[in-house]
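ping. complex inputs:
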Amino acid sequence: MYLLGILGRRVLQIMATVLLVAVLVFTLMHLLPGDPAQVMLGDRGSTAAIAQLHHDLGLDRSIPVQFWEFLRRIATLNLGESVTMRIPVTQLIVERLPITLLLTTMAALLALLIAVPLAFVAALRQGGWADAVIRGISQLSLSMPVFYIGLILLITLAAGLRWFPVGGIGSGFAQDIYYLFLPGLTLALSLSAILLRNLRSSLIEVLHAEFVGFATAKGLRRRVVLGRHVLRNASISTVTLLGLNISSLVGGAVITETVFGIPGAGRLMVDSIFSRDYAVVQGLTMVLCVLVSVVFLAVDALQALLDPRVAT
Amino acid sequence: MQRRTFLAVTLMSTMGGPARAATRGGTLVYGRQTDCIYLDPVNTAQNADIWVSLNLYDTLTQPTDDGKSVVPGLASSWEVSPDGKTMTFRLQPNLKFADGSPLTADDVKWSLERAADKATGGQFQFLLASIAGVDAPGDGTVVLRLSHPDPTMLQALATFNAGIVPSKLIMAEPGATLDDKSKSFAQHPVGSGPFTLKSWNRNSEMVMTRNPHYWKQGADGQPLPYLDAIRYVIIPDDATRILKLKAGEIDAAEFIPYSRVTELKADPRLNMVLFSAAQVHYFTINNRPTLKDGTKNPFSDALVRQALNYATDKQALIQVVTYGIGTPEQSFMPMSTPLSYGTGPLYPYDLNKAKALLAQSDWAHGFEITLYTIAGNVDDVAKATALQQMWAPLGVRLKVEQMESATRIAHYNSADFQMLTSLWTNDINDPNEITSLFCYYPTIQNRHSGWDDPVLDKLFLDSQQELDPVKRAAQYREIQERYFARAPIIFGYEVPYPVAMAKKVKDFVQIPLGNNLFASTYLSS
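pong. complex structure:
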């Protein structure tokens, strides 16, 4: 019951955040110098042509009127029409967002698959050579920029060994997974390094805790001790860290999608900002904002499950 | 007999040699940097759309591969009345759109009237502005009534925005207005070009299959095109696009960075081709006596402009920016433009001459110039740093301000700048478009430079109605000579379009305007 109350409060918080983001996005886009009519007409735009396009795009109306229209459209889930592609923004987002979601989900899973076993090895062999090697590699992958990791993986695993296709996406879910493996790995590497370092130190801390010594003394098998007691307690801060980093995964997806030629939401965002496609930028930001908020909500719920103290 | 001639840029490698039998069938996978946005011939201004448009929408006349003249397209022949104001076209027999429905003179009338009308013709309406009306008297005849004699009309009809569309299909689309109907049509277009759109997954891939009703015949006497399909794959990152080509996942890749041309030329599996482009890179300068902030502007003095042109080593710029691929400008217009006139590189590098000219001006003591470049553009950085060094001996300090593209355009349109990096690509195979923007003040104040020459304004207007090709050529020679002498820009260089292809890809053409022509392309077995 109490948990539901917390969740209810969180949902209200999310709605307030979304509204705030709506105001920010609208203001920032309109504060940017350079207007879409000029960008679209480029060199050839005469003053009359620019004025006409302004009118067509509704940009000649006052800012409050435009803002009101914007809010009204969001409330009715109508995100408007892209001024460059001339198709509904919702259609664009529905086409492009799933790829980005799949990419970030894969990246998060791969990061966990890499981080958790390695963190265990490092923590159990603390100070040994395995620990040193793992920490060294994680340091390296943290310090390499995403586009560089991406290119290295492309050159070696895709173009060189031909294990993977060189960028792009396939058709159908199974092919998508295959095509998105390398970009997912690219995104996962730096995140896995962050998670690994955090999980390793939490594990070491928990391994030395009295209740672990007690559980071992009670005669519990080592697997049970490590799985049920050590990992659960050590993962609380790692889950928080993972949740916080989901938004940076979305940011990293922008670069990864460009390097790997993936037609996802990240690239849509960048293209739309450059062409001053207000409706697309605003719509996409709102959708991403809601999604990230939902992830935060899920992280909170997960934390409450892992650590009963949070919910009380 | 299929013969292709390219206007060779110095480094261009050969594609074909003697004509040989083309192989039919197969799918060509073409790696593009950007995807199409909007597939309506009149309602787009994006290169990504324009470059593929002629494959979907055929035109009355078609451009030759070198861009200098036209050959019959949907129209098999034409004649011009003595007063130059009536043009009569005879259509090829039994023309069909890709869906099998007949292409009639009424479709031509409808398409050209839409493209020539200011309200519906989009941004390139001005190319067809002299069309006062189109008649379809029957019997496969189309008559163009012109408001004045127009020497550019045959080339204008070969340009993408004069593509013929199926009027009945567009009018059957949902929507209340023509704009709504066109918008709906552009999502699943049908034309009469050699290919037709099969599927389009935005920003991922676009598939065009051969149009079985295309009228033109190949070297084997069968209808073109040779290919079964073209699959365009969108790969924005240059390095990835090249990797995909090397891995054999795609057959061709556009926009090869100039830095990698030499490397790809050495690859025995690839054909690295530099197609002659109607593209010039130069610097726009503000010629007004004072800048927007009220300061006095040295560029208003022709001596200063000439001096800085002499102090600009174009060959060095080409080395630094395009790795030696390119040629110094010989005119303000690309040399592939019909009626271009040039006798050699303009203002060849001569520091002593530059110093002498500057000494005669009021600005002998040196001054500061602010150059706006596009933020994050590596070419712009190379250009700016090279110019800083070249101009320093004259006492000219070049200050560089990086700007995001949209902001820079706003500065440009409001003439609030001193100097900009610029590039221009022709949209029509005629000198009139570039001249109207560079030399005819009323259009956009000569590219917002504020420089005005009434003699050029008049010459341009006269040339727009001059039907005698010899006289028109003389007018354009005078325009270019006057422009060159007054130096209202800092002249730069021309560059080609670099496309890398697997060896098996034959007879792909990119014309100087940029249009990709696949009608005669084939994959050798």
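Chain A has 13 helices and no strands.
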